[in-house]
Amino acid sequence: MNGINQVGFEPEEIRTDEPTRSARLKWVIVVDEALPAGRATNAAICVAAATTAAVTGLLGPDAKDADGSVHPGLPWAGCSVLGAPVARLTEIRTRAAGSLGVFVADMPVQGQATRVYDEYLRQVGETAGAELAYHAVSLVGPRNRIDKLVHRLGLLA
User: CA 125 to CA 145: how far, in whole Å?
Assistant: First the structure.
């Protein structure tokens, strides 16, 4: 977690026996709707990985099939993947980062500009925060706050 704005579920809040809408926190990923399908998928998966590593309680328990094979836990509270124009994506990221109780994981465009992670770090480090553009952002926070941030966005097509 980012140390300032820690977000997650307490163990007693994890209610896998209830509909996802009853969860206190909501998780959405917003992707640049202009990206080709492969790059959009990559961006969404990358911010999802960062989110599940940082936000406690997002993943439910492992499932075991009738043959005894184990299937790793999935997000019990759900996750919607939405599309937005790049300008709106940047606006959402900026507003979310300043919103108390909202976790933000993002993928700046530099994340798909190189295959060397140190080069990505260098490129981001040389860019002012206000000048970064994003391919995707992942948000987890109070349901009403997240709904206001992504108001009227549709599922990524």
Answer: 30
